Amino acid sequence: MLAMNYRGPYRVRAAQKPYPEILHPGDAIVRVTRSCICGSDLHLYHGLVPDTRVGMTFGHEFIGVVEEIGSSVQKLAVGDNVIVPFNVACGMCAFCKQGLFGNCHESNPQATAVGGIFGYSHTAGGYDGGQAEFVRVPYADVGPTIIPDWMDHDDAVLLTDVVPTGYQAAEMGGIKTGDTVVVFGAGPVGIMAARCAWLFGAGRVIVIDHLEYRLDFVRNYAQCEAYNFRSMEDPVLFLKKTTDWFGADVCIDAVGSDASGSALQTITGKKLMLQAGSATALHWAINSVKKGGIVSIVGVYGPTDNLVPIGNVVNKGITIRANQASVKRLLPRLIDHIQAGRLNPKAIITHRVPLEEVADAYHIFSAKLDNCIKPILIPPSARK
Ligand SMILES: NC(=O)c1ccc[n+]([C@@H]2O[C@H](COP(=O)([O-])OP(=O)(O)OC[C@H]3O[C@@H](n4cnc5c(N)ncnc54)[C@H](O)[C@@H]3O)[C@@H](O)[C@H]2O)c1
Ligand SMILES: [Zn+2]
Ligand SMILES: [Zn+2]
Fold this sequence. Notes:
Elements (H helix, E strand, L loop, with lengths): L1 E7 L2 E6 L11 E9 L2 H7 L16 E8 L11 E4 L2 E2 L5 H4 L18 E2 L16 E4 L7 E2 L6 H6 L3 H11 L7 E5 L3 H12 L4 E6 L2 H10 L3 E4 L6 H7 L6 E6 L9 H9 L8 H9 E9 L12 H7 L2 E4 L4 H13 L9 E6 L3 H9 L7 E5 L6
Parallel strand pairs: 10-11, 10-13, 11-12, 13-14, 14-15, 16-17
Antiparallel strand pairs: 1-2, 3-4, 3-8, 3-17, 4-5, 5-9, 6-7
Helix pairs in contact: 4-5, 4-11, 7-9
The structure holds nicotinamide-adenine-dinucleotide and zinc ion (ZN) (2 copies).
Nicotinamide-adenine-dinucleotide (NAD) binds next to helix 1, helix 5, strand 11 and helix 9.
């Protein structure tokens, strides 16, 4: 079968790989009909995630058709169209039982923090991902969710990560009616977080990025204010000034370890690798939230350390909430929001690329070319 294949930083290609096999009676094999490239894949692509092995297939955002099931699978049948959450979760452990599907204790033997994630290096379990024609899906009775008949499959594929992550970013912000919410990052996740902030009652939503085309997009899509941090002397000062010098009620970091905007962070985090990527957006979030405010982090950071102003967290009495999104927990209410027309995820898809051209798709998305917001990959078998 054809699959995306990692060859080293900035080098990926489409190559032939053996068809995946059922390894456990609870597995299913899914024939992928669409997959996305995510900002999280860029951390892998840029070589920022430890133990990203040559030969791995990335892709934690995919939907498809159940092709085969293991002997103990009860809830799926061959031929079902399924949304597959990016978290690999057992459904049985103490953390899954609390709805913390991103922190499953069983699905990732390599770590005690994050649970398993499809196509996300051996630090997240070493599972091959869905930027492929077929993929093995463990714990098939837990994550996969049938796509409702009425749902557009372009919306369905965004329910595997971007929509739940943006929504959970807003949820973790504890937004109260009328709150001012600042979202750092106008990528797919930040765009969705800005849109979802209104669902929780925000009174003002401000998005910060430095890509004009994304700022234009989010202004329209999320009906918010959007500003370019390159046009400011200091984004923290700007945000304080525009909030009567109080600071925002809630700041959301939807950027993570690939952040730009600070030479010190970029050199120590991305060039010298002295910290786990650059923590510029998180730094700004901590410094521009009000005293007693909440910083919600969905941007991804590596497993080691980052330079953040922890003293300000203490002295301002900030609450920090963070996690990988718990996709399965959120799916029922997000499906309702889409059906009711309150969320329109597919509008963020800008590129539809044949899987054979995966290298071009990564390059375009990584270099932010061609006004790219969200690229999806279509395998050859889904184009017949
Ligand atoms: N927690 C989760 O479950 C989860 C799920 C999906 C993605 N993520 C993470 O969310 C982050 C965003 O994902 P995405 O797909 O939107 O990525 P993306 O790369 O498309 O978008 C990131 C955006 O941040 C902007 N940016 C860079 N530096 C900035 C700064 N200092 N301040 C403000 N904006 C800045 C970039 O210009 C870009 O538009 C990534 O770190 C990704 O790994 C987390
Ligand atoms: Zn993702
Ligand atoms: Zn579990």
